[in-house]
């Protein structure tokens, strides 16, 4: 088998496994965060979590597929490791950027919800306040 094909196969296996692992980790641990962002609405948190995971898979696996081809052929074992380190490193960076982007957006949504809750008065306004005696 050609060394370039071996490199492609190893790259796909490692990249897909990393994408699945990161998506499952984000889904499992992000659910609690989403429930807080969405004020305890568990059904909505599960739905949003599922949609985020699907989007995460589509973007990352699409990037992995687009980044598969290489103009150079791999000539030796050293070339396999060099090509794999470059390709897997870029995939890891993309996964990290996607994760940080998700956390940033969800944190902004959460902050907006906290601010909206703080703007509501603790009791309904009475419409008027009786003047204090002696003022």
The count of β-strands is: 0
Order of helices and strands: HHH
User: Globular, elongated, flat, extended or rod-shaped: what is the shape?
Assistant: rod-shaped
Give the averaged pLDDT, no decimals.
82
Query: What can be said about the biggest beta sheet?
Result: none
Helix content range = over 70%
What gyration radius follows from the Cα positions, in whole Å?
25 Å
Low-confidence stretches: none
Task: Give the distance, in angstroms, between the N- and C-terminal Cα atoms.
Answer: 95 Å
Give the amount of beta strand, in percent.
Answer: under 5%
Oligomeric organization of the protein chains: single chain
Structural class: mainly alpha
Number of helical stretches of at least 4 residues: 3
Question: How are the elements arranged and paired?
Answer:
Layout: H1 3-37, H2 42-66, H3 77-119
Q: How would you sum up this structure, described in words?
A:
Helix content is 76%, strand content 0%. The protein is built from three helices and no strands. It has helices at residues 3-37, 42-66, 77-119. Helix 1 packs antiparallel against helix 2 (42-66).
In short:
With 135 residues, the protein is mostly helical. The chain has helices spanning 3-37, 42-66, 77-119.
Overview features:
mainly alpha, 135 residues
